[in-house]
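User: Here's a structure from my thesis project, written as structure tokens. My advisor, Dr. K., wants to see whether a designed sequence matches the one we expressed. Can you design one independently, without my sequence as a hint?
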């Protein structure tokens, strides 16, 4: 963004009156700051935004040609320029599209859905003739967070085998997942775009040993979801159990690809198709809705305003829905891996802050833990309340209490309360948004996730960065390989660096441990 545009937005931002005054001056504020789209009701009225600022933000999105970039993304253009890759995840859910992307994606999706349904019905039982009762996904980052969040969110639609997730290279994670599982009725899904990720490959080896110890044909108990079929086949995955996606699908944007296979196992291919339909609804909305009622666009400009213009360093995502409790973790990767950067596509430093720290925990639990700080702490933390209007269980009273708490918290943050005793005083003017899906079903969840995907990409375009690479994870990976080989060799490092004293201490500790 040009410096003069940025600075005039900054001036407008600083001139915004406190929320209580904004509501007093314009009681109809909620009308122009609420958007209803794809079954999602989004209320942005308790954000520190005025009409002129809203209009200026929309104008700057036009100047930055956000809609042009969105159309390019819908076409699968090469937007990931540092890796020279197309960005094509929207093709994964456009069953009507005829692009070569869409055709490739559809073919693999059909294979995955058939395999998932065979596993669910018992038509595919692996080598033991026992129906699969447990599916364990081994993957990390985008090969874990999306499907894990969706399986949890759609718990009420679960009708197949129990689906568990292992991501951490800490053996405790796989130990937990194996607890009570029977090798004869367990299927592993090795989810890895690259099929080289250290954590995933280590856990996959251990899973293979565990299965082979009691099952004659181990490979019948493994499925792969990968963009590197060759590596998966070499590892021993059977061709008919190797589900493919493509280098034009970024890991954190891959839940609508065959990375969603564990979701298909949990809810069935029909419900998964609904999930994709919901994503397609939002894809259609984002390219066609006018800016002031375009949900991902308004969501994006508000998040960007909070981090880049107001300078709020974090955002708390608080799902008032227990089933959405993995949403903050999913958004951490989506937003922070995409936009946690300092240089733009032009190689220059970005003006203003980029990705906020995204964190959160299910409400109402958070209220009894960290909401004290949100209401009275010295940092202003914008809050994103996310919930469903329809109750999922039979306890409607509990659901009403949940919703009442959400409204109360949002109001308390915005309005505050003056009190003669300073420690009982709430300064208010703390911004929040409320995002409500009418019903937490596969279609609506698909729309919600696509909204976040698009908002993330739009924020990146506003910042002028490439949201689709992740060079920032590479250095740590490289150093870990070198360090792991030093630990495996048990070799003391003599040269003095920042970390060798710690490495040498650990090597010595391990040696002493194995002697005892
Ligand atoms: O290290 C980051 C990352 O590359 C993510 O972008 C990705 O989602 C994750 O690791 C897992 O990668 P893979 O699916 O290749 O195992």
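Assistant: Designed independently from the structure alone:
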């Amino acid at each position: 963004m040009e410096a003069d545009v940025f600075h005039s937005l900054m001036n407008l931002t600083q001139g915004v009156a406190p929320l209580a005054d904004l509501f007093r001056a314009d009681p109809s504020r909620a009308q122009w700051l609420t958007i209803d789209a794809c079954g999602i009701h989004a209320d942005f009225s308790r954000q520190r935004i005025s009409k002129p600022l809203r209009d200026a933000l929309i104008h700057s999105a036009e100047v930055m040609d956000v809609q042009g970039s969105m159309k390019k993304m819908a076409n699968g253009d090469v937007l990931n320029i540092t890796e020279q890759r197309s960005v094509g995840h929207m093709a994964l859910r456009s069953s009507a599209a005829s692009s070569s992307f869409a055709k490739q994606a559809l073919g693999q999706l059909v294979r995955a859905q058939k395999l998932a349904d065979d596993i669910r019905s018992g038509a595919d039982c692996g080598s033991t003739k026992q129906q699969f009762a447990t599916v364990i996904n081994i993957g990390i980052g985008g090969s874990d967070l999306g499907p894990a969040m969706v399986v949890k969110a759609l718990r009420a639609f679960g009708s197949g085998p129990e689906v568990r997730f292992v991501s951490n290279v800490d053996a405790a994670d796989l130990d937990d997942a194996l607890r009570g599982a029977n090798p004869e009725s367990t299927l592993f899904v090795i989810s890895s775009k690259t099929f080289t990720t250290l954590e995933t490959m280590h856990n996959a080896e251990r899973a293979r040993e565990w299965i082979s110890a009691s099952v004659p044909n181990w490979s019948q108990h493994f499925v792969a979801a990968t963009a590197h079929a060759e590596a998966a086949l070499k590892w021993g995955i059977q061709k008919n159990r190797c589900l493919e996606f493509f280098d034009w699908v970024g890991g954190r944007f891959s839940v609508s690809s065959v990375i969603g296979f564990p979701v298909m196992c949990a809810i069935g291919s029909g419900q998964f198709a609904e999930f994709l339909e919901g994503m397609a609804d939002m894809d259609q909305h984002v390219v066609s809705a006018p800016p002031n009622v375009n949900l991902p666009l308004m969501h994006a400009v508000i998040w960007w305003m909070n981090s880049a213009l107001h300078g709020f360093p974090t955002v708390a995502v608080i799902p008032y829905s227990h089933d959405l409790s993995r949403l903050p973790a999913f958004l951490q990767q989506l937003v922070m891996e995409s936009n946690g950067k300092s240089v733009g596509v032009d190689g220059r430093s970005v003006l203003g802050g980029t990705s906020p720290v995204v964190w959160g925990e299910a409400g109402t639990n958070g209220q009894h833990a960290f909401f004290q700080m949100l209401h009275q702490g010295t940092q202003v933390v914008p809050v994103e309340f996310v919930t469903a209007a329809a109750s999922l269980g039979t306890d409607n009273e509990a659901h009403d209490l949940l919703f009442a708490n959400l409204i109360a918290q949002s109001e308390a943050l915005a309005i505050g309360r003056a009190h003669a005793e300073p420690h009982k005083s709430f300064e208010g003017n703390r911004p929040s948004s409320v995002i409500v899906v009418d019903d937490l079903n596969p279609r609506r969840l698909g729309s919600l996730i696509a909204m976040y995907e698009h908002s993330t990409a739009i924020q990146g375009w506003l910042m002028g960065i490439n949201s689709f690479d992740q060079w920032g994870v590479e250095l740590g990976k490289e150093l870990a390989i070198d360090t792991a080989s030093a630990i495996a060799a048990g070799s003391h490092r003599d040269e003095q660096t920042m970390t060798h004293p710690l490495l040498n201490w650990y090597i010595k500790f391990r040696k002493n441990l194995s002697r005892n």
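When you compare it with your expressed construct, this may help: The first strand starts at residue 34 and ends at 37.
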